[in-house]
Amino acid sequence: MALSGVCLARAAVWGSAVTPGPFVTRRLQLGRCSLVSGAPWSSKLHLSPKVDVKSMISYMATKTKAVNEKYHRFLDRNFPRFYVLYTIFTKGLRMLWADAKKARRIKTNMLKHNIKFHQLSYREMEHLRQFRRDVAKCLFLGIISIPPFANYLVFLLMYLFPRQLLIRHFWTPKQQTVFLDIYHALRKQSHPEVLTCLERTIPVISDAGLRWHLTELCSKTQHGTQPAVNDILVLRECFSNHPLGMNHLQALQLKVLSRAMLLTPHLPPFLLRSRLKNHTTVIHQLDKALAKLGIGELTAQEVKSACYLRGLNSTHIAEDRCRIWLGEWLQISCSLKGKTNPMVMPLKSKPLLHSVLRLLGVVV
Fold first, then answer.
1. In angstroms, rounded to a whole number, what is the distance separating the alpha carbons of residues 296 and 167?
2. Neighbours of 321 (CB within 10 A)
3. pTM of the model
4. Are 356 and 345 in contact (CB under 8 A)?
């Protein structure tokens, strides 16, 4: 009994002297919990990284959108003129990026299925044609921005000369109307020169019947009389051989035609001839695709763009008149075979004559 009392006293002394600390107590409690119910806190420690990343991205996107809206309101309130330019620039970049993705998708499909340009649908052909012109204009800006600190000068030039340096995505609605009028005025200035070139070549034509028809057509154009479609189609032979065939045109005639089609005339004759052939061939291919699609399938904007490309200033003309004009154009274009001579187009623009005669010699 004495021994057992000593042992009990020792246990009491050691138990009171060595009390487990809070860390040890916590470890013991966690150990007991884990033994009883596994690991209840393990689900909180092992969260899915995908959920965390998605929630973080969503949070950052919401905050960025809120800050962007505040920034837009600040610019609109304090700098309204700059805000207009800023809005047009950002929208233009988005539209250009969308055009680039669509063009890449079309090119990929062409390579994948071995499709040629003329085998595409009308809208795909028109998109590629316009995108190439836009890229050429942007490429010029990129080249002049290469020297050090030249980018600051480029921004100033873009602000001062938007028509010459910027593509249509970066124009205001008012600028689009004004600039299209300016381009058409430049195109129209070359029409009298084209008529003069045609009149000078009349004596050289060997066929008397063709000479008479061409004289009558030029006379009707100068007096503002609208010729019939057959009056133009009867002259197809004149634009396929000497002296009005594309391969027989002189340097002065090539420069006049380049201005009439809004192409630069400041190039050597062989480059002018090549550009005219390519440009008018693309137009003829577009005409075939459009005839297959049908004018009725085009939107109002597509109709006006198609008329403007072919020589009619459609910015101030009603949609119905544009559709009639485009139908007459297709009637002539689809009656021709091969490539077109642009000498024909400036004769057919009141409202049709000053444009269609740019087509005859290229497509015959």
1. 28
2. 13
3. 0.75
4. yes
